[in-house]
């Protein structure tokens, strides 16, 4: 397969994410964007949520009015820069204009493809997420994957105003990139290697995109690739880096929420230590801010964006006020406090060889081709259990 078709000599790429603008909970997008530009020469258009929007999947907030603002990130980390409500020419020291939307990751993709840059985008790249999205439990909840799936479903997209034929009648090619935290702290060197690896994978895929043999649609380009990169320095060094084709491990999660006495005004999603310290089974969530290279002046809450102020810290609690009791006003409340240890560290011998979770456990980068659909069974499964031997197929009546 030759390289992906592009409207111009230089690929125009939509970059989106679910972690929002550069901040402690979104430490990867600025360096990744710069490397896509400098190494690959891609024309990158950034359209992202204006705040952290993890775990929303492919959701659209259909009752909301989505507002846009414009961010002009400054070197070296993109943590500062002017935010305006209207676009303006670049000033000295500015190299890019990013669009921030008050919507979900999937919303960002759809608006970018159909409203902001119709007939211009050749490829959608979502991420890099700060947290793995290997296995169904993570992938089906992921805003990063949701943004990529939204791209694959956002067709037909009109061709350029020049009258050239559209390249995206069936679907637009999409890549979702996720960095999986393995050890802490996550050092600057690990992040540098991960970004280098992510750009290499994106380049290799774009140069030799694969095909999907679909019994309904026939042979067509793969819709989405999900890429997971373990943040392990030794495994990411250039001479030791290994990448595997994988399928997705089917698993499930358990309890995701805990009772709390905090009100919404008191709750700070970036302060997990105080909000979870009463639980002996809790472990730090992988997609929480882990990058110690973020300057201390940067906001450390997941609601942060450029120039945002930290949300109020929650009230401190003591062992005499357990979180399993209703709040003082009698109202029962819950906050997101998942115990992900069974998903993050399963025994290697329990993982199917060739799955994304198996590759992650081996220290390999995994590349998983996906369809933007709820996948049915490959064969069998039709009919009731008592009819198992009767060879029921799709279309059989009962």
TrEMBL record:
Q: Which is an annotated GO molecular function term of this record? A: hydrolase activity
- Please name the source species: Kwoniella dejecticola CBS 10117
Where do Low complexity bias regions lie?
272-310
Residues of the Survival protein SurE-like phosphatase/nucleotidase domain: 13-253
Give Gene Ontology CC terms. Answer: P-body
InterPro entries assigned: SurE-like_Pase/nucleotidase, SurE-like_sf, TTL
Q: Could you identify this protein by its name?
A: 5'/3'-nucleotidase SurE
Region annotated Disordered sits at 266-330
